[in-house]
Amino acid sequence: MIEMPPLQFAEFNGIRMGYYEAGPTTDAPPMVLCHGWPELAFSWRHQIKALSEAGIRVIAPDQRGYGATSRPEPVEAYDIEHLTGDLVALLDHLQIDKAIFVGHDWGGFVVWQMPLRHPSRVAGVVGINTPHTARAPADPIDLFRKRFGETMYIVQFNASQEPDRIFDSRVEQTFDAFMKKPLPRQPEADAAATTTAGLGATPSTNMAFPQMVAAYDASRDARAPILTPDEKQVFVDAFTRTGFTGGINWYRNMSRNWRRAAELDHTVRVPSLMIMAENDAVLPPSAADGMEKLVPDLEKVLIRDSGHWTQQEQPEEVSARLIEWRRRRFG
User: Fold this and answer.
1) What gap in Å lies between CA 223 and CA 230, rounded to an integer?
2) CA 127 to CA 34: how far, in whole Å?
3) What positions carry a catalytic annotation?
4) How do residues 138-155 score in pLDDT, each as one tens digit?
5) AB hydrolase-1 domain spans which residues (predicted)?
6) What share of the chain is helix, strand, coil (3-state, %, to 5)?
7) Each residue of 289-314: pLDDT tens digit?
8) CB within 8 A of 328, min separation 6: which ones?
9) CATH of domain 8-137+262-330
10) Where, residue-wise, is CATH 3.40.50.1820 in the chain?
């Protein structure tokens, strides 16, 4: 039995956003849980239950382009100004002054931007796997291309619609390939090899996720799934209906976001927590090294034995860390 609160809707910024809410409305500041790619508010099902039962008000939206929320056509409709603006509008709709923003994967990038762009609405920030970094010294797509080559998935996302077509035509295969626990690490294993281990790929693929999904053979994958069949079906049904383009359009704004952030002060001036996953090969714990320079009030926590899908792989520990930090820092 999968437990989720009732789906609710709010209209603002030219979209209709679907979101879930649980816990006492008197609790403040609430925690807003922001998912990554390719995910949904459903990715936070374990935390919604645990936090609300601990007396914490929780809000988890399907963000722009995903699930029950609108998918505007223009690529520019998915830039960081729109994504952070939607979270502010959701607070306005719920008549909430300030919130703690919790983000995983792409959601992490969005929540670290919230105190930079909307400081009066942010009580605190929690990044899960995704660190806060200074503005890149050059266009990030150019940097990815130089470091990883043309086949790296983010470079591919910015080059054509072919990745969208690959994922859209293989929805269940996409989640079978992605939503798995990593294999036990070999001490000298290359990070890219770890990322691609269960997908029949080699480090030379440089995170060529569309091609890896296209070639995926479940019978050759030794990794354990992190989703039950019923849980996987929720993702498959949602992405079969929506396709993947809305979420991929977030990546297609990375250069635009970089250009438009030139004058932004990147210092985060609210209490912050960085939750790192021991075995995330794409966003390893080392990616958070030096964050303290940009986030003066920062605590760090390492979740052992977890790959990239941390809040779904180690839900009890993630929930416990969120509850402990929230109570200690905000009462």
Assistant:
1) 19
2) 10
3) 105, 308
4) 999 999 999 999 999 999
5) 29-313
6) 45, 15, 40
7) 999 999 999 999 999 999 999 999 99
8) none
9) 3.40.50.1820
10) 8-137+262-330
